[in-house]
Amino acid sequence: MARADPQGGFAAQRPRSRSPLLRFAVIFVIVIVVVLLAVSALAPAAPPASCPAAPAPCSVPPKPPGSGSGAGGGSSQSGNAAAELVVGTAWSSSQFGFSFHYDPQTWDVAEDDPDLLQLKSPSDPDADREDWVIVEGASSSSETPDQLIQARVASLQQSVPDLAADSGSYYQVKGPEIGDVPGIAAVYVGTLDDTDGTPVAPVRYSIVAATQGNLTVAITVRTLDPDSIADHGPPALTWHMLSRQLVDAILEDFRWPAG
Amino acid sequence: MAGRLTRAGRRYQGRSRGRLSAAAVVLLLAALSVGWSGSQATAAAAAPQAARLAPPGELVDFDADLVMPGASQIQAAAAAISDPASPAYRQYLSAAAFGARFGLPAAQISEAAAWLTGHGFQVVSQPANRSYLGLRATAGQLQATFGVGLVDRTDAAGVAYHLPLGTPAMPLELRPFVRAISGLGTSPASRPQPRFGPANGLHPADLAKAYGIDALHGQGLDGSGQSVAVVSFDTFDPRDITDFDNATGISGPAVQSVRLAGASKTPGDGQDEVSLDLETIRAIAPKAQIYDYEAPQSANWSDVINRIVEDGKVQIVSISWGRCEPFADPSAGDPDDVALASAEMAGLSIFVSSGDNGAYDCLDEPDGLARDFTVAADYPAVSPHVIAVGGTYLSIHQDGSYLGEVAWQDPLGQAGSGGGLSKVFPEPSWQVGPGVANAQSSGERQVPDVAGPADPASGMFVVSDGEGEVVGGTSAATPFWAGSMVLAQELATKDGIGKLGFLDPVLYSLAAAHQADGSLFHDVTIGSNLLYPAAAGWDYATGWGSPKLDALVPAIVAYVRDHPH
Question: How many domains does chain A have?
Answer without folding.
Answer: 2
